[in-house]
Amino acid sequence: MEHPDPGADVGHLRAEGVAIIAGSVTDLAGVTRAKYVPVARLGAFARSGMGVSPSWSVFCVDSGIAFTPTIGVAGDLRIRIDPEDLRVVDAGVAWAPGTLNDQHGHPAPLCTRTLLSRVERAAADRGLDVRMGGELECTMLSADGGPATTEPWSPYGIRTSLDRSAFLVDLATSAERAGLPLEQLHTEYGHDQLEVSLAPDTPTATADAVILARIVLGRVAARHGLRISFSPVPFEGAAGNGAHLHLSLSDADGPLLSGGDGPHGLRTAGAQAIAGVLDTLPDLIGVYAGSAASALRLKPGNWAGATACWGLENREAAVRLIAATPGNPHGANMELKLIDASANPYLAAAAFLGSALRGIGRHLELPEEIPENPAQSGVDTPALPLGQREALDAMETSDVAAELLTPAIVEALVAVRRYESKTFGGLPPAQICDALRLAWTC
Description:
Blueprint: H1 11-15, E1 20-26, E2 32-38, H2 42-47, E3 50-52, E4 77-81, E5 87-90, E6 93-101, H3 112-125, E7 129-142, H4 158-162, H5 165-177, E8 182-187, E9 193-198, H6 203-223, E10 226-229, E11 245-251, E12 254-255, H7 268-288, H8 294-297, E13 307-312, E14 317-322, E15 333-336, H9 345-361, H10 388-396, H11 399-405, H12 407-424, H13 429-436
Parallel strand pairs: 1-6, 13-14
Antiparallel strand pairs: 1-2, 3-4, 4-6, 5-6, 7-9, 7-10, 7-11, 8-9, 11-12, 11-15, 14-15
C-alpha cells in the first residue's frame, strides 16, 4: 500500500480530484514524453525524481533511437519537477514541466530547459529584462486522423468558428483552470486550422506554456471527438502550422526595440539584437524547423518567414518587427516566424535569445529592411538552407551552433534529425505528411 510522502503537501491536489502527477521533458525530436506517479509520491518526484534512460533525449518521432558516441544503452537520468509548477490538465491528472538531472542532482548535458535557464541568466547578467510570447498554429482532425470537416472553409470566418464554439468554450475554460495564459484564439487561414496566442512571460515560462497549451489542446479535442496536429504540414498542399516566438528586451533605459532613433524607433542595441538573430539563421534552421516535414512549409508565399530578412509587419520575412503602437499593448517586439512545432520549444527559445544577445555583444550591423514581399523587393538576401539535409550540414559544422547550444546538444540533435532524414526524407511529400501528422500531438 502506498503511504503518503511526509514531505509533500498534496491535500489541495486531492481536493481538485488529482490522482496522478505527470512530469514531462521534450526531446530533441520535439516530442514531449512523461512519467507519472500517484499523487502521494509528489515529494519523491520533486526531490530525487523519476528514472529515465539517457536515450530519452535521442528518441525519434517514430520511436526509433538515434544513439550517438556518448549516448548508448547504459546510464540513468532523473526527471525532477517543481510542485509549484503543477497544473491540472485533465480529470484526475496534474502536470509539471521537468528538468533532466544526473543521479547526483546536477543538470544533464542534454537538458534543454536548463540550457534556456542559463541563457536567461546570461541576459539578466547583462542587465536585460527578457519577455517572450508564443503562438501555436494547429489543425483539427477527425478521431481517425483525417480531416475534421469536409465542407468549405472560411478563414477567420464566424461560421467556421461558431461551428466549433463548444470546443472553443471548453478550450478557454480548460486553459483557465490549468493556469494557461491564453490571450487570443481563432480559426485560421488553413482548413480546420486553429491558432492560440499566449501572454508574454519569461522565456522558460513561455516554453513551459507552449507545452501546456499542446497538452490542453489535445485533451479538449479528445473530449469533442477530435485530434490535434501540430505538424508543420499535416496534409500535402495544406496551409502549414507555425510555432512563432516573440521576443522583447529592455534595460535600465527602457525597451531596446522602441524609443530610439533607428528605423521604426529601434535603439542601437535593439537593432543589433535583430541583426544577431538574422546572422545565425543559416546555422540554426535545424533547430527552428529541422524536421522532415519542415521544408514542406518553408517556402516563399507561405507566410512562413522563409527569407533571411526583417521588416515592419512583414509576414514573409524571417523576422517580423512589431512596433510600439497603441494597438500593441505589450510594446515593440520581434517575431521569429521560421519556428514550427517540430522544434523543441526550450531549444528554439534558447537559440532565439542567444542569437539576439550575440548580436548585441558583437555590435552587429542591422541589414537593410525589406518592407515588402522579399520575392518582389529586388534585394539579394542571404541564402538559407531550407532543405533538411542542408540545414543539418550547416548546423553540424557551425561554431555558432556549438557556442549557443553546446556541442553535446548539437551532436544529439543532428543524430536525431539525420535518422529522420534517412527514414522519411526520400518519401513523397504526401507520405511524409501522413507519417508525421500526429508526431508532435500531446
